[in-house]
Amino acid sequence: MSRYGPEYWDKYGSYRTPIAFHLSLLVLLRAYFIWVIAALSRRPELDLMSLFFKSKNDFFIAISIGAIAIVPTFLFCLRRPRDSHKQSARLAMVWRYMRWPLLVCAITDLSWLTIQAARSHYRFSLFLAVQMVIVFWVMWYLAKSRYLQVFFNDWPEPTEKADDKNAK
Description:
Layout: H1 19-28, H2 30-40, H3 48-52, H4 56-66, H5 70-77, H6 85-95, H7 99-119, H8 126-144, H9 146-152, H10 160-167
């Protein structure tokens, strides 16, 4: 696991989270972020949802596609040293495979964007084109990143408190 040097480690001895991983989660969960921003902007004359989604059906499909990425995001939020060895081992075992749901989410999202482009008879839409390029980049990153492969195989070790409790 020491393929990358100490400059890639955080203070707990785990591999640092790549910035591109954060951006990938932002792209895959963009429907949820748009939803939250629209809910927080209390201006009824500015309908943010209609700027991004043509119909409610498109919104619900985008939400369901983004739901695939919620479990890996939740586990990523839990990625910190634990007191329990058992809990840490279980989470590490599940975390190892969380790259695949993110890749499935990106492929599904790109397919949905292609279907949307086909529905508009492939007329050029800058909004769809930008989304397709960004989602394609995310898909490529998730599939080809060597560092991301090492990152998903790493989980923070349990804290020293757990070692002290077991030694007593």
